Amino acid sequence: MEVLYNSTRSNAAPIKASEAILRGLSQDGGLFVPDHIPALDKSLEELAGMDYRQTAYEVMKLFLTDFTQEELKECIDRAYDGKFDTPAIAPVREAGDAYYLELFHGPTIAFKDMALSILPHLMITAARKNQVKNEIVILTATSGDTGKAALAGFAGVEGTRIIVFYPKNGVSPIQEKQMVTQKGDNTLVVGIHGNFDDAQTGVKQIFSDRELAREMEGKGFQFSSANSINIGRLVPQVCYYVYAYAQLLAQGKLQAGEPLNAVVPTGNFGNILAAYYAKQMGLPIGKLICASNENKVLFDFFQTGVYDRNREFVLTSSPSMDILISSNLERLIYGIAGEDAQENGRLMAELSQNGRYGITGKMRERLAGFYAGYADQEETAEEIRRVYHACGYVLDPHTAVASAVCGKYRRETGDQAKTLIVSTASPFKFTKSVMDAIGGSCDRMGDFELADQLSGLSGVSVPAAVEEIRNAPIVHKKECGAGQMKDVVKEFLGI
User: Fold this and answer.
1) Is 112 assigned a catalytic role?
2) pTM for the model
């Protein structure tokens, strides 16, 4: 059955998957959502016998119904190849009393590789299918990981350019160096004087600027997005939840149909939304556990039914979660509002105007499958230390937030169901925070010296993604204020 895509903010005619991928964001400012969630059409036992590429095809074919089998398989084969350092692509590692889904084996050692390795191929295929002649300009805001993963995916891809905005003082040193050393004539990286929410808001404003869109059309350009607001980012993320469950089934760790809780370190809400979609497809996921750091706007939302970004923005050791406007939550709100675009649009307007909105009691009842928790800086460091000393397994700060929240959930509820903790980044991306937590002598050491020390402690080789930037020259030095982002875009495009 064909899946079409609606905007969360209007009742405009639905569009095909390839069109939604190309547009990224609806003209009315809404996000594209499937008109229904398709059910898995392979049994869990069948899925347990598949590798990652086969699993990805079985999931994505159900959402991207206007892609042919040949087109989709070619995109998948190009994405999930030797650029990942393990044939498993997304292995599940048992440590202590939990299973960790390692999503950091791609070229930039963060979970964004899982979707951003395939998005350029989906986008170019979609452009070809829709007879698009314009050059596609990827415009992205990043809180740390999306930027490099998107740059790595689109660098040198014919018919595209990519512009990445990041908060100048809001990412880790290794995250920043990964971005600013990126080669490619079609790439631009800009540090903004502000936080991630400023960058994300600026990108959304540029997307909705119709006058700029007309200027770009006249010069042969059109915008699209590599952020998780793009449905072409979200659909590939559903795949690894299905694959993780199937791996555990194949290994005899689960019985078919046995519920598996999922704990997801959450910032922009895309990763946990993908788990929610997987559950709606029929995957036996139990509780969806939303883990926040001290920017706990999502925790407070699930506790009270009020989303309120009017609070202090905290810089933490888990910068990819330092977010107060969780864009993908809008897709969930649209769903629990009964797919009422008018009601969702009203709530999003409240958020834009007043920085807050509240949902109804009936809507809150539809969130019963979620649990929310948070871990502060001290708890995060303690969890890194605890797991390392108990198991010899090293967590990055984002994964440590999820692991700490998992412990809180178990103590609070007594639920001892088997649990998948989503490990979103390599600890080698956050060497100082990790080594401080473990107890290494790192006061006077640089990030690359710390990476060497971490390698010695963990017995894991320094990843190629870190080695390749150790002595790489800085390519991108541009900075701007949040209000200058449009001017930077126009300058890069020669408009």
Assistant:
1) yes
2) 0.92
